[in-house]
Amino acid sequence: MNVGTVVKRSFFFSICIVMLGALMKITHLPGAETLLIIGILGNVVFIVSALNEVWTSIRIEKHEKIMWTISFIFSGTLGPLIYILLGRKRVV
User: Fold this and answer.
1) Per DSSP, which regions of the chain are E strands?
2) What is the pTM of this model?
3) CA separation for the pair 3, 14 (Å, rounded)
């Protein structure tokens, strides 16, 4: 499995699991904490694989690599979503 597939699948997996865990937490169903932890771990897999993809790219400059790094770490879901939908085509 290549890095691009891991990036896409881990992002969508983590989003789905976190949303399901949040819904279960709101409705006080058991197992919500476990789903939230699994979703966060999926997000960590996404961040590591996306950072690897960004920093090994030769198509973008260093300042843009720093911008994507800050976006992945500090912006929650919005930065990675923009990367998957718009920015990844330029990086890879």
Assistant:
1) none
2) 0.84
3) 16
